[in-house]
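Q: Start with the shorter request: fold the first protein.
A: Done. Sequence, then structure:
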Amino acid sequence: MLTFNPDKAHCTGCAACYSACPTHCIRMKADEEGFLYPEASEACIECGLCEKVCPAVTQENAATLEHQKAFAALSRDAGIWRRSASGGAFSEVCRLWADRDTLIVGAAWDGLRVHHIGVTGFENIAPLCKSKYICSAIEDTFIEIHEALKTGRKAIFCGCPCQVAGLKAFLRKDYENLLTIDLICHGAGSPSVFETCMKSLSSFLGGTVTAYQFRAKRKHFEVDYLSRVTTQSRSRYIVQDPYQQLFLSQNALRPSCGKNCKYRDPHRPGDITLADFKGLTTVFPDLTFQKRNWSTIVCNTQKGEQAISGLEERMEMRPCNLSDIVKHNPLFARQTWFSQDRDAFFHDFIAAPEKAIGRWTVPPSTFKPSLKRRLINLLPTSLLRFVSKMYHFVRH
């Protein structure tokens, strides 16, 4: 930890300090819980630049509420939808705003670890799609973005709101050729806990886990937080896998993701906020029996609004009230408080990682869709929508 911000509860690991250091004396080092924190070597010249770019101690530019507009959105491209965690908004925004030379930066898998990488052009963004509920290592991507922007190239950055704030603090000026996208974030999970959970899943499945997918989809959307786990011999869909249990209970989250998180607020750091659309059929009753899940899109700035101008040609878009987002996805605007279980879990985890996973989780199970869901998947969507409309017409 650096002397000006010694409390882990206030450090998000955004790597702005690491990226800005002129002597490269700062490294991001994992602690016993598996989270990255900055550490300076004796080569530090005490220039103070790391403190100037730290969003925990500076006031980063957050969006004003006057430009915010909210939508539920679904890609018209079935291929885009299938490779996305929700409705395909990230892909479609990138396809609309980027050109062939645009640097697009987001989280990607490297084996069973997650880090941010940059790709050039929309056609190469597949590794950046899908949710990854693990603390992602920023590495040198802020520096790559800065170099691209200085040469006039467009750049898109997508990450948790604290990472977007870190990038903006590092850059220290606005760039018209930069589009920032933040996510409605449940929190950043421990890479070390995830790695240990994969060992537990390997034992359950009888083979070493080689690949993992959060919020997996089959032909249709069937259930939230479905995992697709691949071993050397086969892939299976898992519900209630050990990592998902620890992540959703908040027991495996970074300390800064609790009561001190200042990014669960309608004043977002990104030009656009994306998430899955919670409460879809409550807000839009005619979408009952929908076979695909939708995205939330919130435009936070004028640039964000301009960036999605024309998106309705690629996505089915339905305007909604910001209050709908807050009501059904409260992490958009509400901080969370860790229970004492969080520290108790990590106490056990540090002492004996695999034993802690067994103690704090219940056995996972393979996914079997309900009979109702099987029947819904067999019927045409047009028929299901007609039945839904008739039902609501008669009811009212």
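Q: Next, the second protein, separately.
A: Sequence, then structure:
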Amino acid sequence: MREKNGTVVEILGHVWLFTIADKSWQSASGEHVANVGPLPLPVAKSLMATYMEGNFRPGMQSTVHRHPGTEAWFVLSGAQCLETPHGNQFGRPGAAPVIVPPGEPMLLTGVGKEQGHWLVLILMDATMPRGSPAEDWTPAHSCERADAIEKHQ
């Protein structure tokens, strides 16, 4: 469903209003949950927002990939570790959102002891495919190391 300033979706048993707007924008109703951003914007004539839910058990991994736009996660439960060539970012409930700039190769790993649930936004050039394999980068799999997992549980 489309809303004037956003998209309304039902995910994980809740109704959410996702809005891409200036930080000062406020909805006329509902409970404000979080601001995710600011987001680095891809260079594009038109942008497309893709919203998804993520569910990873500890140890699950994504493929090594990249997007032609910014990807951001808001973690609701569990924990995640995102490895990029610039290091690791850890996502947990109540922590800052995990944000990856356009074109950055990445590997996402579920960490901790419980299944993770998160909301995902990919804000990208509307003319490009949503994602592609990142065959030009080999991750160190640093999120799998016991010390990294223990340190962020």
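Q: Describe the second briefly.
A: The mean pLDDT is 89. The first helix runs from residue 146 to 151.
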